[in-house]
Amino acid sequence: MAADGSRRHVGGRFTRRQVAGAGVAALGLSALAGGSRGLIRSAHAQSEGEPPPTSATTSAGPNPWREPPVLMSVDGLLDVEFDARPVPSEGVGKLAYNGTNPGPTLRFRAGDTVRLKLTNNLEGPMTNMHVHGLHVSPEGNSDNIFQMVDNGESFQYEYRIPENHQAGTYWYHPHHHGDAQAQVNGGLTGAIVIVGAFDNVEGIEALPERLFVLQGPDSVNGEQVYTVNGVVNPAVAMRPGQTQRWRLLNASANAYFNLALDGHTLQQIATDGNPLPTVQSLDQILIGPGERVEVLVQGGDPGSYTFKSLEWGGPAQHQPSFTVATVTIAGSPMEPQPLPEKLIQLPDLSQVEIAQQREIIFQENMIAPVFTINGAAFDPDVVNTTVKLRTTEEWILRNTSPDAHPFHIHVEDFQVMSINGDPRPFSYQDTVNLPPHGSVVIRIPFLDFTGKFVYHCHILAHEDFGMMSVIEVVE
User: Fold this and answer.
1) Would you list the domain boundaries of the chain?
2) Domain range 349-474, CATH class
3) Rounded to 10 degrees, what is the CA torsion of 192, 287, 33, 17?
């Protein structure tokens, strides 16, 4: 028992469904299955007055646009309680925080304190909370994924957000090893929005926002469906020439979204909560599980346009094209707003002193353990990597398998230097896709926090079966 009365446990407890899934993956088949007034500027103009979604709207659509409820900090404090429990009316395995799927959006400022009391009413498995992408302490009752909450018990988390934390889009979800896939697939997930200087950049300030919490696939009447904020194929309204800011969060356990909007260019401004130095104009954007991107979209001629995920993946991970949302452009035209000429330049690590270079190899095996990093499956009692505080390291991430693996590290962001030997446009991320039989070079500054945390594949089916390692930062 921990000092607060809750049990600490990170052992691998697996369901029959997960064990079957690992066997399929081993065969090379798919493993996918106040102080805050004014923070939201016309965030959901279509959905004012509508109740938050509690489950997926499953008709073909387009269905009415809806966003999760928003909980905002007041005078520097956001104090919330989350009740994690099944939603029996929605079927076996359906779960929710406070009765909504996805859970409430937490919205606060850099420098605020967030207190989150988590109560486990899941009627069986342990759970916990990970604030994905937040640069906060991994120790104590902060972003400590080694802390578990037993069924019927509660735990009080507290996150002290640094004053210089990047404004952007983040998220939260459970991280109980062995149950992460089932709990995230069930609906235990939600968005975090940190407000700060990036929101005041000319060309971004005062734009209407939309949050897309992307989930799926889910089986409805024998068909696989994907949802946005719990809705299948929601309707997105725009005026000709209007610019909107879209926050796109891949909150699925295993699926990729290869996003494109018919007839339009996606103007990317941020990745994983980190601003880009300049706008990147893209026809399509691939985001793996856990990743977030922010884009500006300018409405074209009147008409209906499909926002979709294009076909993606090799034999074991193949995903067909599917509709994400339907964009309808109508009404009186607006004068198109100029795109930002420049955004925010973060520190470039290309010339900094590298304390150590490491090779991190992601592997799939025909015998157990199926999913490993550097030949070892996750063991909570083993520290796989030890780094020194106030140093920057270069990691060569190698993928020896035929599947893509989204690499994610807790607490720290990194600069992506190259993919398959090709230099990359400047970006800081906390999750990056490792291409099949490929490599990615990143540089990670370990500047602020000591303690133990993890890095892993964010395909949660892979993480649950061992593709995760423990890192410790020491003085």
Assistant:
1) 16-200, 209-329, 349-474
2) mainly beta
3) -50
Query: Which pLDDT score is estimated for 92?
Result: 82
The string of pLDDT tens digits covering residues 96-142 is 999 999 999 999 999 999 999 999 999 999 999 999 999 999 999 99
**Residue length of the chain:** 475
pLDDT score for 468: 98
Phi then psi dihedrals of residue 197, to 5 deg: -60, -35
Helix%, strand%, coil% for the chain, nearest 5: 5, 45, 50
What is the token pair recorded at 16? 């029959």
Give CA–CA dist 425/415, Å, rounded: 10
For tokens 């997930």, name the residue: 189
- The residues, any chain, with a CB within 8 Å of residue 135's CB and separated by 6 or more, are 162, 165, 166, 411, 412, 413, 448, 449
Q: What rounded mean pLDDT belongs to the chain?
A: 89
What homologous superfamily is domain 16-200 in, according to CATH?
Cupredoxins -  blue copper proteins (2.60.40.420)
Domain 209-329, CATH number (from 3.40.309.10, 2.40.160.40, 3.40.50.2000, 2.60.40.420)? 2.60.40.420
